[in-house]
Amino acid sequence: MKRRVVVTGLGMVTPLGTGVEKNWEAICAGKSGLGPITRFDASPFPSRIAGEVKDFRSEDFMDKQQVRRFDIFIHFGVASARMAMEDSGLRIDSGNCNRIGCITGSGLGGLSMIEHFHKVMLEKGPGRISPFFIPGIIANMLPGQIAIEFGAKGPNTSIETACAASTHAVGEAFRMVQEGYADAMITGGSEAVITPLALGGFCSMRALSTRNDEPEKASRPFEMERDGFIIGEGSGILILEEMSRALERGAKIYGEIAGYGLSGDAYHMSAPSPDGDGAINCMSMAIKNAGLKPEDVDYINAHGTSTKLNDLSETIAIKSLFGEHVRKLAISSTKSMTGHLLGGTGGVEAIYSLLTIKHGIIPPTINYETPDPECDLDYVPNNARKANVRVAMSNSFGFGGTNASLLFREFKL
């Protein structure tokens, strides 16, 4: 019999702020965390807006030596893990350390540090490259460093599947606990690539919004005038535990992870399958894995990037899978407020999905002004909605046609 897996701790850093409480308050208020890029001169780029994290101090979570050694995506992830562990009250010691692990996801790893030391090498020579450069940028250093910080000696790995990375990470961590490889997992993801090179690459793909005069209105998922996504940064980390152990130690429980699905489009390097086939398979797998039916799902935190192709494809997939029940489904994209955190987005949106169940409030899709007749579902436009949400799905789809879906449900014995 498969073991039940619950979520007992949350931590996050996003363009809406540092900490879960600040994020949830902003999301429910329909507040945008997007604005003009301030990290570098973005004037040569067609898109000059992003979801930058503004209130974060690395020194509040790491010592100064560590801050210098690691890329900022690791700072975000370690900080989120610290918040999640404190929230959970989980203690790791010699008696349980081999049964607690860490899996995280990132799309690109330490791009900021790569750009920095490439410049150092060109201007000052290879002798000036830091000996901490390589360990400071690799994606698996995030779960490695989190494990070092807390002494977690169980399963440890990282996943790099573009924008689905941290949803895959949570899903695989769920499986580790469910199947008995671990009793608890620290999981989620982090991304921090608001850099000239990343911005230039996405601009060349024409993937980003150029609504530069209205940054807060630029991310408009499923809306008629959407013209691309907004690059964001941040991290979301969750603590997963086997249910009986969490109950035994009196942990508070946000909800239960019920199902996980993953699939591939096998269609195109960056465009989603027009018929939504990969997304359908992925969502269907998550529902079957949970032992539920499509009509049991109350809410979907959509991938909803604000691009023409993705939003239409996801809408088609949801309609196909859910049939008549689709008219009872609430769907929203919190990327309308955070921007797209790429490999970190799944961890953040998993947290929002759990809080939706916990608090009975569905986050809105802001900037929804002109409906798109091809995207004609209930996207919870502009204002949060009170609702009894028992089962919530979180979708993440990435370049290469990689897909991941998580299913959360209200916790009941």
> Helix coverage percent of residues?
25-40%
Work out the radius of gyration.
20 Å
C-alpha end-to-end distance: 16 Å
User: What's the architecture of the largest domain, going by CATH?
Assistant: 3-Layer(aba) Sandwich
CATH class of the largest domain: Alpha Beta
* Structural shape: globular
| Superfamily (CATH H level) name of the largest domain | Thiolase/Chalcone synthase
The average pLDDT score comes to 97
The computed structural class is: alpha/beta
Blueprint of the fold:
Elements: E1 5-14, E2 17-18, H1 20-28, E3 35-36, E4 49-50, H2 64-69, H3 72-88, E5 100-105, H4 111-124, H5 133-137, H6 141-150, E6 156-159, H7 165-178, E7 184-191, H8 196-204, E8 234-242, H9 243-248, E9 255-264, H10 277-289, E10 299-301, H11 308-322, E11 330-332, H12 335-338, H13 345-359, E12 361-362, E13 385-386, E14 391-398, E15 402-409
Parallel strand pairs: 5-6, 5-7, 10-11, 10-14
Antiparallel strand pairs: 1-2, 1-8, 1-9, 3-4, 7-8, 9-15, 12-13, 14-15
Helix pairs in contact: 3-6, 7-13, 10-11
